[in-house]
Amino acid sequence: NHDYLDRFIQSQDSSVVNKFQQKYWKTKQTLIKVTGKKEDEHVVASDADLDAKLEVFHSIQRTCMELLKVIEQYQRRICFLSQEENELGRFLRSQGSQDKTRAGKIMQATGKALCFSSQQRLALRNPLCRLYQEVETFRYRAISDTWLTVNRMEQSRTEYRGALLWMKDISQELDPDTHKQMEKFRKVQAQVRTTKTSFDKLKNDVCQKVDLLGASRCNLLSHVLTTYQVDRSPHLFAYTPLTLNMVFSVGLPKAVLSGRKTNIKGTKENKTLHGGLSVTSQKVGDTVTHVN
Questions:
Q1: Where is the AH domain positioned along the sequence (predicted)?
Q2: By Cβ atoms counted within 10 A, which residue in 114, 136, 224, 280 is the most buried?
Q3: What is the pLDDT of residue 100?
């Protein structure tokens, strides 16, 4: 009974000392990492593929935050520009209604074109809001989940490298003929194997999650931006400039218009612009020949 009690106390003491030593070498490895001291080049090289994946993850994390900031700024500027554009359009329509000459009709048409442009610009906010919500959800769920796995992996890597430092320290003073030293070395060696198994599992998890994260982001942006690029943008960036170009062509002097008509072959085309301004044009492109 006394022998059993002595062995139990000795094993408990050994377990406490072992845990203390594990904490010591883990803390030492943490200090090496924080202070930026040079580590074993072979150990660092063995994690080259993992470090490359971590760079990709941090890039995704950073660019998603930047994208959210850009979308917020873009929405604010769209609202501001739309408001200014609408006010200018209303002003031109108001002034044009008081002018009974051709200039008044041009101002009214330009004003309605600007009001239409401001409405189309505001319509861009719907796909932008959806894009913001999708990216924010992606950041809170997918990126956060990967970030937690990366943190667990970093802790496991610190424990593993700390165990390697511990084993290296013991091996430098190892005497094969001493039973206690060999037993201690085997315990440390077992600790290295245990920490390596845990680290390798988390390392594999991180690499897989980063690959899935990159693919998910590509699919997300490809799907969400389709509405913005195809359904909304053409109305604003194609139709409105064409309308304004036609209005500006109407306002050109007759001498310029007659010069533009020289050697032009085509068919006559009637167009009614905003404000009831009728334009009869014989053109290649947008050349205007007569205003009613």
A1: 45-229
A2: 114
A3: 83
